[in-house]
Amino acid sequence: MLTKVLFTVAAVVIVWWLFKAFQRHQAGGVPRQRPHERAAEAARAAVRARMTERGETADGGQGGKVEDLEQCPACGTWKPAGEKCGCGRG
After folding, report:
1. Model's pTM, two decimal places?
2. Does the chain have fewer CB atoms within 10 Å around its N or its C terminus?
């Protein structure tokens, strides 16, 4: 009885392996992306699309423009260097 069960399990595993090998062969031998790889690629594409929409570059800048910031002595917020703070005190 145990021999029949083991033989059946082995036959199912072998048929499953052959089926998967046949599918890979039909797909050109290129392995498919796993779900987490597809999700990561979709997230990267969405971020790239959003950055392009906003006009940002890949390094995070706005078209390569870099601004120096300084802290307002009165309220402590950061503002572009040489500009007045929105609090009106600094």
Report:
1. 0.34
2. N
